[in-house]
Amino acid sequence: MEENSMAEVFNDIKKPENLVYSKSKVLTDNVMHYCPGCSHGVVHRILAEVIEELGVQDKTIGVAPVGCSVLMYNYIDIDWQEAAHGRAPAVGTAINRLWPEKIVFTYQGDGDLAAIGTAETIHACNRGENMIMLFINNGIYGMTGGQMAPTTLKGMKSSTCPFGREPAQDGNPLKITELLAQLPGTSLVTRQAVHTPAAVRKTKKALLKAFENQKQKKGTSVIEVVSTCNSGWKMTPVESNKWMAENMFPFYPLGDFKDE
Amino acid sequence: MAKMIGLIEVDIETCKGCSLCVEACPTSVIELAEEVNGKGYNYAYMENPDACIGCANCSMVCPDSCITVYRKKVEMV
Ligand SMILES: Cc1ncc(C[n+]2csc(CCOP(=O)(O)OP(=O)(O)O)c2C)c(N)n1
Ligand code: SF4
Ligand code: SF4
Ligand code: SF4
Ligand SMILES: [Mg+2]
């Protein structure tokens, strides 16, 4: 195409009525500190989109974890509370009980939710606290330098198991989401991913459902997102997505465990 | 016959050159530039603009919300 006619075509397409996708207004202009290609960014993005689409920016309160997403209150323009490592479900419980009319979610990594915070996680779900728990499972402690997490796969390398996780010494990887599905307090328990456009759309749908459940006071909605930590895994973002599909999904299968 | 033509705009300065959009595009529109942005990343751009169908797959996987997508239906003669 000629330069001129191409510019013409572009101008013709680039009109408000032809807009298909633009950045959510619930996201701030701060550039996220995450490594290039990190799953955290994708999940933040669709979370902001869901909050915008449901028109609940004024009444949603997030509880930020300790982990790479510790600064996420800088990126999504809602009310936030920072929790100590693993304690987000306890803080979420308090918010939920003080302000039952608000929408409350926690956002936690696997180290946060499934290691140091296991007790808080299980008891909040068992009580059926009316909140959403978003669980970013990248199989590693991303923030602190890629140490082994409870979710690290058998044979998977990390800085504290450089030859691969050996269950006889290191214990077995924990499927905490399957465990949480057994508890009477949970209503929606699902495992999703954000490695392809279709997967992103599905995770967004699960989020919409979880927000709807909160409005209907159905108890705890748990959404696990099997994620990548390309820096910790020492792969490119594209390689990480492939590795995740090949290695994480067989052990952490995607799908709904509970939808009541 | 009608055809969808698309256009993406990449926010060059916030792009981190992760390449996830390149991988997600069904019609191989996007590539990473030889040049780098202010942060030193090879940013994404439309190498084959004619092939864009405005499906928004690229914007779906972008962790940094850098991509704006437009789509228009045109009648082919
Ligand atoms: C009480 C306490 N113990 C330990 C730490 C150190 N620490 C910070 S982040 C982290 C683990 C983060 O891993 P994860 O929750 O999986 O989040 P990711 O960075 O992978 O997203 C640990 C152990 C801390 N900040 N506070
Ligand atoms: S260390 Fe891992 S989890 Fe943390 S920002 Fe980088 S890629 Fe993401
Ligand atoms: S809108 Fe679709 S076709 Fe166009 S660049 Fe993005 S992924 Fe490719
Ligand atoms: S997905 Fe986003 S950040 Fe990554 S290369 Fe494409 S535009 Fe840049
Ligand atoms: Mg982690």
Automatic annotation (TrEMBL), chain B:
PROSITE patterns: 4FE4S_FER_1, 4FE4S_FER_2. GO terms for molecular function: 4 iron, 4 sulfur cluster binding; metal ion binding. Keywords: 4Fe-4S, Iron, Iron-sulfur, Metal-binding. InterPro entries: 4Fe4S_Fe-S-bd, 4Fe4S_Fe_S_CS, Fe-S_Ferredoxin. It comes from the Bacteria. Residues 6-35, 43-72 form the 4Fe-4S ferredoxin-type domain. PANTHER family: ADENYLYLSULFATE REDUCTASE, BETA SUBUNIT (PTHR43687), FERREDOXIN III (PTHR43687:SF1). This is Ferredoxin. The lineage of its organism: Bacteria, Pseudomonadati, Bacteroidota, Bacteroidia, Marinilabiliales.
